[in-house]
């Protein structure tokens, strides 16, 4: 059912560390907006992240649309995006839509050129190949977490006690692994400077998955039975699956604290009236307003791409979307 | 129904130029084997293509599993793979499993870093987002074909008549476009040297799509209704869709000349007995033998990955798979 409780309250109920972090972030930033950063160069991507960072809680990428994506683990596009994410307080979500047999997906997630697991807090999966694909991704994420936590621990114990006898309490993760991007290293004052939200904590060393349970496109083949199976699989992996890419909330049991993120969102142009008609993109995409998606359908986060990117002023347009989506959330939870 | 006619005969019936080419290739090379080249470096990939090229008609890639994939249009991994493809006579099939809304998939197919359409004769799509995804890919491929043919034509007319008055008949495509990989340029003697099959023609300047209609993995969610919709969409795009990745032939109407390629194929190890049991991979993959897949289920091409790659001698193992799959085809068409 549509959640009436606040994001803050839900942050206390979920057992997923990254979901809890995200829900707190939403409350602090008063934002339930995800930018779909569908641009074609690294510079465009980073500029957009810098400009719109204050308005969003998630930035969604299609890394393979970036013609000059730089794969370097510590100076490449993913690492730079992560630094902006920490500065502004948002999570990175690579919209990879994994959709192969388990063994292939594991390799695509962790290895290959893109090493998505290293720079993307969240990714998503198309469960068509069967539930094993979620099982194998969960397995890969658990191994990743173990490795990261081990690296951090090792580094602490390697650190000599300081002259006054206290152990150094700041863990410098940047030094422990060549392949590690400094996602969670302490923010320096300089990195911190532009930050509008000093209350934002470091994100936990965790990874999360969204299951693609319903699509926005016309005539898609996601049936009720298919969507139900997605929910079933999510319940089997509550420590890894954060929620869904879906068109409505899919929380049904008391323990369901899943977050639903929803693409296919636009506001009518040149008017604040959400009842004005919105055209699709002529290639199957269909749009709904934040009021419908958040207020009525009970989704938590709206995903907006061209509605913001193609605006004359993406920064102010992002703020307009943030405001509309947030008001829809306030209305939903005020009754 | 299971086809009783030969690949040669079917080459005459299909209206898809790339399917006709592939079917002729199969007859010449006596092979209905596709190698799934799931390795992790460019060198491994190219060595495998070189070693196993004579046994196969299609080489399937997951470009994003190659940690050092080189994106350069004329000297990169895709271009080099294409040169080996021309030398040995096989088509390249990037197993990308596109699965997004139309506008995103078009960009992923044609643009971004990988520019898959430039180096991969064949790719595939997961039709879950709806039929529009096939429509938009067909549109992109038609534009690509138009552009290529225009480039070739332009180059022909630019070419001066030779001294004896005849127009130069060999089109040197390498010169016409900076972004073009010399897929179809005439083979030099040197490139030709290792070629065991001098009858092999140049592949046509065409692109083809396979629709993922059935999967090999346990508990996958492809229902009969879903598979039927895939066939319907294929029939709407007979000039672009070559066939299916499926577990059985899906040809049902007289006009259906679709090719079915089938993963989840292994031979029992250390025995020629195809009735011996074969284990899955423990991550959802299920295996069947060529005799079952080609002989009984009526598939045309078997896709084999780990069965060949992990063998002590991949080259001789590939030959063993080629022989078994070809015999299954001969048996099927001899009755
Ligand atoms: O059902 C879906 C699922 C996704 C994400 O998983 N998307 C993606 O959202 C974004 C929507 O962009 P738009 O707001 O410009 O239409 C695109 O990146 C598209 O690939 C959709 O548009 N629909
Ligand atoms: O249903 C499918 C579809 C595909 C291809 O579209 N695949 C792919 O075939 C290959 C099978 O490899 P294997 O022979 O090593 O199991 C892998 O690349 C896998 O991703 C499958 O394994 N099953």
TrEMBL record, chains A, B:
PROSITE patterns: OMPDECASE. GO terms for cellular component: cytosol. GO terms for biological process: 'de novo' pyrimidine nucleobase biosynthetic process; 'de novo' UMP biosynthetic process. The active site is at 95 (for ompdecase activity), 97 (for ompdecase activity), 100 (for ompdecase activity). Its EC number is 4.1.1.23. Keywords: Decarboxylase, Lyase, Pyrimidine biosynthesis. Residues 32-321 form the Orotidine 5'-phosphate decarboxylase domain. GO terms for molecular function: orotidine-5'-phosphate decarboxylase activity. Residues 270-289 are annotated as: Disordered. Substrate binds at residues 38, 60, 216, 285, 305-306. Belongs to the OMP decarboxylase family. This is Orotidine 5'-phosphate decarboxylase. It comes from Oidiodendron maius (strain Zn).
């Amino acid at each position: 059912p549509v959640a009436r409780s606040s994001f803050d309250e839900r942050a206390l109920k979920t057992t997923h560390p990254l979901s809890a972090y995200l829900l707190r972030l939403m409350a602090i930033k008063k934002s339930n907006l995800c930018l779909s950063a569908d641009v074609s160069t690294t510079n465009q991507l980073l500029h957009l992240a810098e400009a719109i960072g204050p308005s969003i809680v998630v930035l969604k990428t299609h890394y393979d649309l970036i013609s000059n994506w730089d794969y370097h683990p510590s100076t490449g596009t993913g690492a730079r995006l992560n630094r902006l994410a920490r500065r502004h307080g948002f999570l990175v979500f690579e919209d990879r839509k994994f959709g192969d047999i388990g063994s292939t997906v594991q390799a695509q997630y962790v290895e290959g050129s893109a090493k998505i697991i290293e720079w993307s807090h969240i990714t998503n999966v198309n469960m068509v190949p069967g539930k094993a694909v979620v099982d194998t991704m969960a397995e890969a994420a658990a191994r990743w977490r173990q490795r990261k936590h081990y690296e951090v621990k090792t580094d602490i114990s390697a650190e000599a006690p300081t002259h006054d006898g206290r152990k150094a309490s700041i863990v410098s993760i940047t030094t422990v692994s060549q392949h590690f991007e400094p996602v969670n290293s302490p923010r320096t004052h300089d990195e911190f400077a532009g930050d509008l939200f000093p209350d934002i904590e470091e994100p936990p060393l965790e990874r999360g998955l969204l299951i693609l349970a319903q699509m926005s496109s016309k005539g898609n083949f996601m049936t009720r039975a298919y969507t139900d199976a997605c929910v079933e699989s999510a319940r089997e992996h509550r420590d890894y699956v954060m929620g869904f890419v879906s068109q409505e909330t899919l929380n049904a049991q008391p323990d369901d604290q899943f977050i639903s993120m929803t693409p296919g969102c636009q506001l009518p142009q040149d008017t604040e009236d959400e009842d004005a008609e919105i055209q699709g993109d002529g290639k199957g995409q269909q749009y709904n307003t934040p009021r419908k998606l958040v207020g009525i359908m009970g989704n938590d986060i709206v995903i907006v791409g061209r509605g913001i990117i193609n605006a004359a002023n993406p920064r102010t347009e992002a703020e307009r979307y943030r405001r509309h989506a947030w008001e829809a959330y306030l209305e939903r939870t005020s009754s």
